[in-house]
Amino acid sequence: MVIMAWAVFRSGPNGHKATATNNFSIPVELINYFTLVTQPEGSDESLIQEILYRMKLDYSHANLPDSEKFLTKDPTKFIEPSVIQVKNTKELIRSIRTKAPEHLKIVLSGGVYKVSQTIYLRDNIYLEGNGCAIIKSSEDKPVIFAEDVQNFRLSGLTFISTNATPFFIHRSSNFSFSNLSIINSGGYGIQIDDETCNGFIKNVEIIRAKFGALLIRGGVDRVTVINSYFGQNYTGNLRINNYGAAVRVQSMEHMRPEHNNSVGKSTNKPSSDELRSNNIFSHYIGTRRPKHVLIYKNTFLDNRSQGIYFSGALKGAVVDNLISNSDKEGICIDHQSAFNWILSNTIIGNGARHRQTDFEIKADHIDPRKRMPDGSPKSKLPGVSIDYSDFNVFALNEIAGNHGGGVKFVRSAHRNMIFRNLLIGNNLGDNDLHKFPSMLLGSSRTEGTQAKSQRKVFDNRKFGSSYNIVLENIIYEDRRGILIKERSKENFVDKNSIYINRPVYNIHDCGTKNVIRSFKQQYQK
User: What global pTM score does this model have?
Assistant: First the structure.
């Protein structure tokens, strides 16, 4: 029955195309319904308006993603490059430092290249390995650093950098990484920093990076991550453990020195906007935010934090990825991320928290003394979290076998669209703190953090997760279908099919003025 339902779900009714993987084709129903939530309404709009103003955005930007805005091919260009072959580290560094010829392709012969100093790239450099070239470093600075550099490419190389991030890119443009392996990095696998644009990452494997595989931070615009593999990342410990996500896309923050191993010329000091007295979240409502990041057809497996974490990201797309067995959420859209599209992903078996330390559990407001027989904490996490984020579309995803629920709107998430997803059996964990259903529309007062001083800016919203659209989803669940918590208002819930194993509620509304209509329900025997 589930297989048949999924086949119908994927093909879509009335013959319309229900897939997002071909040029971001979106069903027309989604466009029409999403229009309903892009209009300001009500009197409790002050914080949303302030967010949009400080993001330099308005409601008119809530439209379909234009495929031309996403860079889906290699942006680098080499005009008849000269080709030289190198056999050792000294020859490699000397070739890069030489200013002529302007366009240079350096081919690395097979073998190990031991690097004892950071290699600074210049414009129009192409480093190519033959598949057997290994660049190895035990230094505490990045192996390769690009600042104020245009047009560079790396391919066919393996990097082992045990004490630092192998690649650090800042204020640069038109670059590509392809067919790379990054193993046991002592920092991030790749860090792409402020004022960088037009990046392309394809067929890159990042395994066991200490802080996380890929960090995209600050005013970065147009980066594509495609056909890559991210596994077993975040092997260290961070004070802010969400930095350990396999791929983290976040607004600019003055990163703590112990987690920022840049050797750049500039210090990335906070802007005046970031220094406003908004406690630790001040930087999230600044203007230095990543835009147009496309994460497409990648595999995320066995990562110790989230698979994908958006924090203050705008107009991005997460399309057709497999995200499995993340210790925290598969995908978390957080801290005023807006106008992002999460489409056609498979999100399975996330949120068990098996590998979290006591410090990390406490940081999430969980009592580390309460454990299950396998040693993991009782309070689990869902496949997807949408926290303090507005105007995002989450459609056509398969969400199954996650431990703390399927999709969670936490604290106050507004004007998001949850459309035609399939949710199956997403309550594997024993949750003694949060009794998550398959889908939850929550609020700050009911999420256990209202008294936390660092949350006060967002908890001052006058209502919970509101004005969201939940449309045409299929839910198979052991316990509960959809739960709308108190203080969540004017959500539109329509045409959902919910099948549960017990005669309890399919849709339970504790909020106010929510519109719930036309849903199918059936108790499984």
Answer: 0.84
